[in-house]
Amino acid sequence: MKKHIFILLFSGVIGLLIGSCSKNSGSMVGRWAYVPEKSTDLVTWRYRTPEVVVQKEKDRIVILWNWMRRGKVAFRDSLTFCPGSAPSKIPVTSAIWPENWYMGVLAKKNSWKLISGEWKQPGRELFVRKKQVVEISQGEAHITTDYTYTLGSKGRMLTVVEKRSSRPTSITYVFKRID
Length: 179
What we know:
The chain is mainly beta. It has helices spanning 2-21, 44-47, and strands spanning 30-34, 49-57, 60-69, 72-81, 88-91, 106-107, 112-121, 125-136, 139-151, 157-164, 171-177. Strands 1, 2, 3, 4, 5, 6, 7, 8, 9, 10 and 11 form an 11-stranded antiparallel beta sheet that branches. The protein starts with a helix and ends with a strand. Mean pLDDT is 83; it is low at 2-25.
């Protein structure tokens, strides 16, 4: 009898350890590395590589887009919001607009971007909307960008589909979990 209890307890401890090692496997929370061969091929990625970090802070979601160059963050863009709530107002402090930096489109410095989002499937599919003013050669343009973040069935891959009001086709980013 003691042997059976020991085996049950031992199995439970092992189960807890395995669960703690893969704590983010069923969650978008974590750090994600870009997989270029599975993503839309655009010139942007040839000079800067996106890395995504998803964090949960109480009722807020924070998504950091790190645009990497030579292993270092060249630029960081953040999307912070409370799912299902009014849009968050985020100050624009840099003229770099990472989505199209190579085309001469600039973010309007000292303006605001509005970020909102909602869970389509809790923990598995997240819809995010960003509204922002950019500067182009003809003046200013109001751009709306919709992102759909979808966690793969095993929790190891994250697909982000970006649809922008100024672009007729969507862009697909595929990421693999780093941690």
